[in-house]
């Protein structure tokens, strides 16, 4: 198990085009997955689409489409993110997949047998945007604060309920045992406060005659699953649960797995860190390992909204600027667990200062110097037999061969800061460490003047080549395409602009 690593994003609803808000989540998860692979882990990286529920059902009707045809169309758009953002996920699950439906039904039966699912009449205020019940204390001026443009709906019917109230103390005990369960601590404090106030049982089904688009409830043809109860189960159905026991044990474990991770937005905090954990307890399954909560991306200070016309498409950004610049902006500019703001001015400023003038300019200068002086990259070929070994970052540090002691110390300190930052999921701090090394290289060039012939010329350029190689390895989880281009330019000594100025 110790060589296995499981990571999953939440599943976005397929009621709209992909935007950079979800792109942030999946790119963060992709960096973690690539980093863990570089550390030698066998990574199962899950993402997908959430395709049931009232919101999607109504959108399909609005567009005069069969719900399955509607979700097929939109799921394909989310799958296109893999190429656009150069994602390395290994599994794409859809909640309409036949296996997921069966797994959800078997999960339901386990909770039912445990006495945690029962039937009753109820009346609630419901936000279709959140697909959640809203209490008066959660409302702002009678509206859902997340979807203030939507009117709350009154739902009154007989449904099945999940005995959430039973899990107040078990959840608090679990949180006490694992004080790093939710990152950041501010979000963890928020969910613990919510739990301490007491929990209310919640509806886990809907009447089929009113809303037929959902997983059928086992043994009751008149009801379908409430969307959240269905969707959360994807995190284990993706692993083949319950049939593929060996695969499930390998990546999820028989007890809490230290190598399992969930990335989620702050609007999913309660669902992921409380509801899902209680469901797992009810089904007699191990709880998930750790949850990283990221914030929202605003656009020029406003939350993205189709009605405001400020939704930013990752596809359009990639088309205009390229994949790695988009990845870089999301990881460097947006704080990993807080809200961040997008503007084209900020994007282009980062692009020009950090990528074109920073990384791109340094790589071009050093490779040009190497070509002019006929200096080779001083690799130990006996140790670096294959390209896969060359780019497997963290086992063989070429920095050991650097001649200048201060340069060697700087590179080794960079690696230390980098590992610490990624161990704490601080993507921006890891990138700051890399760009500080880029700045050191620039200053080293100005000091040593390697364009002038001297006894130290080749030694200086050789050190710079090794440093560029280290930078390329450091960037592999973040900017995989750029990293590969640098490796190839080092190999061929052919400098080509990585990031033309805009």
Low-confidence stretches: 380-392
Sheet-strand content, in percent, reads 5-15%
**How many domain regions?**
2
Biggest sheet strand order reads: 3-2-1-12-13-7
Strands, count: 16
> Structural class from helices and strands?
alpha/beta
Distance between the termini: 47 Å
Number of helices: 19
Arithmetic mean of pLDDT: 91
Radius of gyration: 25 Å
- Could you state the CATH homologous superfamily of the largest domain? HUPs
Oligomeric form: single chain
Helicity, as a percent range: 40-55%
CATH class of the largest domain: Alpha Beta
What is the CATH-assigned architecture of the largest domain?
Answer: 3-Layer(aba) Sandwich
Features of this protein?
2 domains, 502 residues, Rossmann fold, single chain, Isoleucyl-tRNA Synthetase, Domain 1, 4-stranded antiparallel β-sheet, 19 helices, 6-stranded parallel β-sheet, 15% strand, elongated, alpha/beta
Could you walk me through the main structural features you see in this protein, from its secondary elements to its overall organization?
With 502 residues, the protein is of the alpha/beta class. It has 2 domains: 4-294, HUPs (Rossmann fold, 3-Layer(aba) Sandwich), CATH 3.40.50.620; 344-492, Isoleucyl-tRNA Synthetase, Domain 1 (Orthogonal Bundle), CATH 1.10.730.10. Helices cover 48% and strands 15% of the residues. It is built from 19 helices and 16 strands. The protein has helices spanning 20-38, 54-62, 67-79, 81-84, 98-113, 168-177, 185-196, 227-232, 234-237, 245-251, 269-283, 314-321, 323-333, 344-373, 387-391, 405-423, 427-448, 457-475, 480-492, and strands at 4-9, 42-49, 91-94, 117-127, 132-133, 153-162, 182-183, 202-203, 205-207, 216-217, 220-225, 260-265, 290-294, 297-299, 302-303, 340-342. Strands 3-2-1-12-13-7 form a 6-stranded parallel β-sheet, sandwiched between helices. Strands 5-4-6-8 form a 4-stranded antiparallel β-sheet. A hairpin with a 2-residue loop joins strand 14 and strand 15 (302-303). The longest helix is centred in the last third of the chain and has 30 residues, at 344-373. The model is unreliable at 380-392 (pLDDT under 50).
């Amino acid at each position: 198990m110790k060589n296995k690593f499981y990571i999953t994003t939440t599943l976005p609803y397929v009621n709209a085009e992909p935007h950079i808000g979800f792109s942030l989540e999946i790119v963060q998860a992709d960096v973690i997955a690539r980093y863990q692979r570089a550390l030698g882990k066998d990574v199962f990286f899950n993402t997908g689409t959430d395709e049931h529920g009232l919101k999607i059902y109504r959108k399909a009707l609005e567009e005069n489409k069969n719900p399955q045809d509607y979700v097929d169309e939109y799921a394909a758009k989310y799958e296109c993110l893999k190429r656009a953002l150069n994602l390395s996920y290994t599994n794409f699950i859809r909640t309409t997949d036949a296996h997921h439906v069966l797994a959800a039904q078997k999960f339901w039966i386990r909770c039912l047998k445990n006495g945690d699912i029962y039937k009753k009449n109820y009346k609630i205020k419901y936000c279709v945007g959140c697909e959640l019940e809203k209490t008066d204390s959660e409302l702002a001026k009678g509206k859902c604060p997340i979807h203030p443009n939507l009117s709350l709906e009154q739902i009154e019917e007989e449904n099945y309920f999940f005995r959430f109230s039973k899990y107040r103390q078990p959840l608090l005990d679990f949180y006490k045992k694992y004080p790093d369960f939710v990152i950041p601590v501010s979000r963890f404090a928020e969910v613990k406060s919510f739990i301490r106030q007491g929990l209310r049982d919640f509806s886990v089904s809907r009447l089929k005659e009113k809303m037929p688009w959902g997983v059928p409830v086992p043994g009751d043809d008149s009801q379908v699953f409430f969307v959240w109860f269905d969707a959360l189960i994807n995190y284990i159905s993706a692993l083949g649960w319950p049939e593929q026991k060996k695969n499930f044990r390998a990546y999820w474990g028989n007890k809490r797995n230290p190598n399992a991770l969930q990335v989620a937005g702050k609007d999913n905090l309660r669902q992921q860190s409380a509801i899902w954990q209680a469901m797992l307890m009810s089904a007699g399954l191990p709880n998930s390992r750790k949850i990283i909560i990221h914030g929202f991306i605003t656009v020029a200070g406003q939350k993205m909204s189709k009605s405001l016309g400020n939704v930013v498409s990752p596809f359009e950004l990639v088309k205009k600027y390229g994949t790695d610049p988009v990845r870089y902006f999301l990881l460097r500019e947006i704080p990993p667990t807080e809200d961040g703001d997008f503007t084209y001015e900020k994007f282009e400023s980062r692009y020009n200062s950090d990528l074109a003038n920073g990384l791109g300019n340094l790589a071009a200068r050093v490779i040009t110097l190497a070509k002019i002086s006929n200096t080779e990259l001083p690799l130990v070929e006996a140790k670096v037999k294959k390209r896969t070994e060359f780019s497997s970052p963290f086992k063989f540090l070429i920095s050991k061969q650097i001649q200048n002691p201060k340069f060697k110390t700087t590179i080794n300190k960079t690696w230390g800061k980098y590992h610490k930052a990624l161990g704490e999921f601080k993507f921006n701090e890891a990138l700051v460490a890399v760009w500080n090394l880029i700045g050191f290289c620039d200053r080293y060039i100005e000091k040593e003047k390697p364009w002038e012939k001297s006894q130290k010329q080749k030694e200086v350029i050789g050190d710079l080549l090794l440093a560029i190689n280290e930078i390329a390895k450091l960037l592999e989880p973040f900017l995989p395409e750029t990293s590969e281009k640098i490796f190839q330019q080092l190999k061929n000594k052919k400098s080509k602009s990585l990031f033309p100025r805009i």
